[in-house]
Amino acid sequence: MYNVAIVGASGYTGGELLRMLLNHSEVEVNDITSRKYDGTPAHKIHPHIRDSGLVFKNKQPNELDADIIFTATPHGASMKIVPDLLETGAKVIDLSGDYRYRDTKVYEKWYGLEHTSDIKGVYGLPEIYRDEIKKADLVGNPGCFPTGAILSSYPLVDNDLVDRIVIDSKTGVSGAGVNPSSTTHYPNIADNVNPYKISSHRHVSEIQQELHGFEDVKVSFTPHLVPVIRGIQTTSHSFLKEEHSDITPDELRKFYEKTYGKEYFIKLMDDGEIPHLSSVRGSNFVHIGGFEIDDTGRIVMLSCIDNLVRGASGQAIQNMNIMLGLDETTGLNHFGLNP
């Protein structure tokens, strides 16, 4: 049995980590930390987590004794504590943006923060970096938007089929975090679709990094906030290179089947079947569909994920399983909630 600690466990991602880890057969959660809620039982903050016996503690990194530590801390805070956590001998999975970037200058540009850590993490997208994750002591867990966007487009860039991708994503309100704001206030969200940061969302840099950077493929991204609690539905419009203009939808599907055919958590939709948020809610699955090409050479691909599970805590547990040499699906092999 492996010991697990969660640093900054009071937010939505912390609650999801607890929900799934407490049902995991190979780990035991022995520490959850929070400065604000020091001494507070877990169920007072996460009402669905009852009778766990866990209490929030304001512990320093060197006071934690764990095999795996999840850092569910704000951007900029993780880099200040992760080096000390690694010194304890634990493996660390960081859910902030601090260790997702190969070039820290890109992080500094998009996050407006100085990157003060010289430690490098492995980008935690298992379907692409599984071998690297197996050997890693530090994993930078991907952002929620990038997870759906990258996985729905990766076979296209990996096979050099396209030179431009325009990504449109609709996200549930839980993606904004646990702290309320005027943006997430119910009257401002209900019966509405709100685009935001239409050309400057920082997740575009993460998507660009993984879809062959800024040179090989041009990537544009616009997010929209929609009146649902969980989920991200992404529509990717990709434009075929001239030399591939005669590709057919059946041939396109074969590229995806070759890339993801053995991946447990990625489900490719049947022809004419559209991914739905309700089908992945509460699960670690990614549903990918579309496979259509119009007369202009535009490929339309769609993906759905639960932003709190596959877009955050579930993917973090998937990475944990890989790092510990466990079956990758352990604690995660439950289907979504429908309706």
From TrEMBL:
HAMAP family: ArgC_type1 (MF_00150). Pathway: Amino-acid biosynthesis; L-arginine biosynthesis; N(2)-acetyl-L-ornithine from L-glutamate: step 3/4. SUPFAM superfamilies: Glyceraldehyde-3-phosphate dehydrogenase-like, C-terminal domain, NAD(P)-binding Rossmann-fold domains. The active site is at C144. Its EC number is 1.2.1.38. Catalyzes the NADPH-dependent reduction of N-acetyl-5-glutamyl phosphate to yield N-acetyl-L-glutamate 5-semialdehyde. It comes from Methanobrevibacter smithii DSM 2375. Residues 3-136 form the Semialdehyde dehydrogenase NAD-binding domain. It is an enzyme of class 1 (oxidoreductase). NCBIfam families: argC. Signal peptide: none annotated. GO terms for cellular component: cytoplasm. This is N-acetyl-gamma-glutamyl-phosphate reductase. InterPro entries: AGPR, AGPR_dimerisation_dom, AGPR_type-1, NAD(P)-bd_dom_sf, Semialdehyde_DH_NAD-bd. GO terms for molecular function: N-acetyl-gamma-glutamyl-phosphate reductase activity; NAD binding; NADP+ binding. CDD domains: AGPR_1_C, AGPR_1_N. It comes from the Archaea. It catalyses: N-acetyl-L-glutamate 5-semialdehyde + phosphate + NADP(+) = N-acetyl-L-glutamyl 5-phosphate + NADPH + H(+). It is found in: Cytoplasm. GO terms for biological process: L-arginine biosynthetic process. Pfam families: Semialdhyde_dh, Semialdhyde_dhC_1. Its main location: cytoplasm.
